[in-house]
Fold this sequence. Notes:
- The protein is 40% helix and 20% strand.
- The protein has 434 residues and is α+β, with helices and mostly antiparallel strands.
- The protein has two domains: 3-170 and 230-318, BirA Bifunctional Protein, domain 2 (2-Layer Sandwich), CATH 3.30.930.10; 331-422, Anticodon-binding domain (Rossmann fold, 3-Layer(aba) Sandwich), CATH 3.40.50.800.
- The strands form three sheets. It has an eight-stranded mixed sheet. The chain has a five-stranded mixed sheet with strand order 13-12-14-15-16, with helices on both faces.
- Strand 9 (265-272) and strand 10 form a beta hairpin.
- The structure holds adenosine-5'-triphosphate and magnesium ion (MG).
- Magnesium ion binds next to loops.
Amino acid sequence: MAEINRAVKGTNDVLPSESHKLQFVEGKMLEVAGLYGYNEIRVPVFEHTEVFLRSVGDTTDVVQKEMYTFDDKGGRSITLRPELTAGVVRSAIEKGLVNGALPVKVCYIGGCYRYEKPQAGRLREFHQFGVECIGAASPNADAEVISLARQVLMSVGIEKISLEINSIGCPECRKDYHKALKEYFTANTDRLCDTCLERLERNPMRILDCKSPVCSEIAAGAPVVTDYLCEECREHFEGVKANLEAMGISYTVNPHIVRGLDYYTRTVFEFISGDIGAQSTVCGGGRYDGLISQMGGPKTASLGFAMGIERLMLVLENQKIALPEAAKTDLYIAPLGDKAQLTASSLCAKLRGDGFRVETDICGRGLKAQMKFADKTGAKFTMVIGDNEIASSGAELKNMRTGEAFPVKFDSLSDELYKAINKSAFDDLAEAIL
Ligand code: ATP
Ligand code: MG
């Protein structure tokens, strides 16, 4: 197929027959975030490359292999965002949010770009919902953020999903841990992949996140970070666990979780589904107490998470969780002839102004073709207008599901339609219950 007719590899189109599902899910995300005091922030799709190098970290897969980076016509190095935290933090510093009332609680939904090998749950353009809580150091902040992510998952109907948490400590206690890791992996240098050999020098913890089977196998026997936590980090982690328990949130501690990005400190967590194959992490997050100062802002304890929306949709599909159906046309008005077409236009304008979903013929079709179209769109009611109807200023409203028809007057059409829709919905409900 010619390239002009072909989407770029690793990208998805959301067709109109599917978009209502995403609208529902994204609506829930923002709604639940609102319950916790989070407001939406929108940041650009691209940033100066430096923003990601500084934040995501140059020893990560994202920076080393996955970024879409190019020079713009002004010679600036620009990168399509591989995630949103970096841009949000850049904005919070630049626009002074970090100097105002803390904590700053923001959420976002947006596209991300990573040059990865496309497969189920792994795309080159994908979308994330996430939150950032900037300026909160207490362990109950971690538990609250985890609770928010969990409530989002539950609000769309997902109950079967597990929460794994870990603490990767602070730069202080990580020094000893890095030393222990270096010793352990140095004994295995003959089997490590080339990238991990480089990581061994610069950031041995990254090896724990390597996707190669041999490196993962070696990593499984590596020293665990929880054995190296300093007193403060250990206390913080205990506080997180106590708060999760107080909220009735079950979790398991998985000392092998380190997360794919460099900026994390202390708490890291993942929500994992057993129903979507190898790309099983639906949501990942954690604390990044050092990131804001690293990006040039004041030292500000912060945390957040990002949830892959496509992976979440896969869980919904594979767990066969029903989502609300797309809204249907309330009324299709079928005019016969030019004069009736003008009456239809006038009625449509009035009804739409009153908030009804109304369609009419805009293709100059005959009655049969119009009714076929109305049927295809799932219109709840139809109304045919010809000379007689114009003369009497009224017509028959037909319920497309039951076939029932009754007369209505044009000047009270909104009221009549409102009643008819409610009665029909009530009858459907009664039928479903009985
Ligand atoms: P993975 O280990 O699967 O590569 P990651 O550690 O790179 O994930 P993050 O950078 O933490 O992931 O992104 C948060 C979430 O965004 C992931 O848990 C996942 O749901 C989603 N995600 C990440 N990369 C992709 C991708 N290429 N396609 C679809 N979703 C993705
Ligand atoms: Mg990745």
